[in-house]
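Example for tutorial group B:
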């Protein structure tokens, strides 16, 4: 297969010279040609695509735009970026998250060499190269392996060797740390990833590691959770902590401790003076109890999951804490119209419309098992 690295102008030139989709595919030799989009001079390639009378029948152009759409928002410095197919673009780790994971390993395990198993198109490989002088990337898919080579040639900060083959066949003992992000698809069980996480861990042995697992996995000791842009982006098992570590990539905040889910919660919403909505990484890690203790407030629980935290009336709380998404002063009117946030309660569209009409003078309305709490947004991110 011939691998091409294209920017948007090159793509348009190829399209203009080949009026028929079958001619384009014939010239490329494969529907899975590795491509790289520069993201320079084109704010929205979909708009460019709509201007072409052939956009609805051109499979290559459609694939390129879909790859661009999935990758463009995930990278900042790694441009252009080679990506062989839409699935690889979907599985690609966001650049800030990949860097946070690599820094996590470097800070806690140190070392000079790193192995990236199941490298994909090389996001985690590039991140590891910033902290380790020698990195080996293993990827069994030929097109993705070639993409790793292209991407590391353009963007790596250290020596990177790319190996096309089975990650489980590598001598892991030759490396100081190991990272693995197996293909998860829609798997909810670590045994259903490709390759299965238990087989990866068995191959790694005692070498310091960070291995991604499906997000649905229940958090326990020996795990790390990373959030970015308001959502959990990576859940990992690791042997470099005895507890659970939650990292808020946007702010650099990190909290570590044993996972717990406190019992009880606020029974009377009239007790609430402040509402503190913590970052998803903290909540997923079951570390809200620890954050609440540090802030001097109480967490509340819905269906076994810590959702928001409450501060007694009259108590001042930090409005710009790096682990908090929103800080709301309860019962105070704002500018509206309100955002309706469900806390452990299922609500429908009709209910949301009713709540927005009823509480239209507030910024946020929390619907909780204990009742409805409206308030004014006074702090938080974004």
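The residue assignment follows.
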């Amino acid at each position: 297969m011939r691998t091409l690295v294209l920017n948007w102008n090159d793509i348009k030139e190829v399209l203009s010279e080949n009026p028929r989709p079958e001619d384009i595919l014939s010239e490329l030799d494969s529907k899975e040609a590795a491509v790289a989009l520069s993201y320079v001079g084109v704010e929205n390639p979909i708009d460019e695509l709509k201007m072409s009378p052939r956009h609805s029948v051109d499979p290559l152009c459609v694939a390129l735009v879909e790859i661009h759409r999935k990758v463009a928002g995930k990278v900042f410095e790694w441009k252009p970026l080679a990506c062989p197919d839409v699935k690889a673009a979907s599985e690609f780790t966001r650049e800030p998250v990949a860097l946070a994971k690599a820094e996590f390993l470097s800070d806690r395990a140190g070392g000079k060499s790193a192995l990236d198993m199941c490298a994909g198109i090389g996001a985690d490989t590039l991140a590891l190269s910033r902290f380790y002088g020698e990195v080996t990337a293993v990827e069994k898919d030929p097109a993705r392996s070639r993409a790793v080579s292209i991407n590391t040639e353009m963007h790596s900060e250290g020596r990177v060797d790319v190996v096309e083959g089975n990650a489980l066949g590598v001598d892991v003992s030759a490396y100081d740390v190991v990272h693995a992000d197996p293909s998860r698809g829609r798997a909810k069980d670590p045994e259903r990833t490709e390759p299965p996480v238990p087989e990866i861990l068995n191959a790694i042995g005692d070498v310091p590691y960070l291995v991604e697992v499906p997000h649905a996995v229940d958090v326990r000791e020996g795990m790390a959770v990373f959030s970015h842009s308001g959502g959990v982006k990576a859940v990992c098992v690791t042997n470099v902590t005895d507890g659970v570590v939650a990292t808020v990539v946007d702010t650099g905040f990190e909290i570590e401790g044993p996972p717990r889910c406190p019992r009880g919660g606020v029974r009377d919403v009239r007790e609430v003076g402040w509402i503190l909505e913590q970052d998803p990484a903290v909540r997923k890690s079951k570390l809200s109890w620890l954050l609440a203790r540090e802030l001097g407030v109480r967490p509340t629980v819905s269906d076994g999951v810590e959702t928001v935290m409450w501060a007694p009336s009259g108590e001042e709380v930090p409005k710009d804490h790096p682990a908090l998404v929103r800080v709301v002063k309860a019962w105070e009117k704002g500018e509206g119209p309100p955002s309706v946030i469900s806390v452990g309660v299922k609500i429908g569209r009709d209910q949301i419309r009713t709540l927005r009409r009823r509480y239209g003078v507030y910024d946020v309305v929390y619907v909780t098992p204990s009742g409805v709490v409206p308030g004014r947004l006074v702090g938080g991110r974004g």
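Residues 95-109 form the longest helix (15 residues). Compare this with the pattern of hydrophobic and polar residues in the output above.
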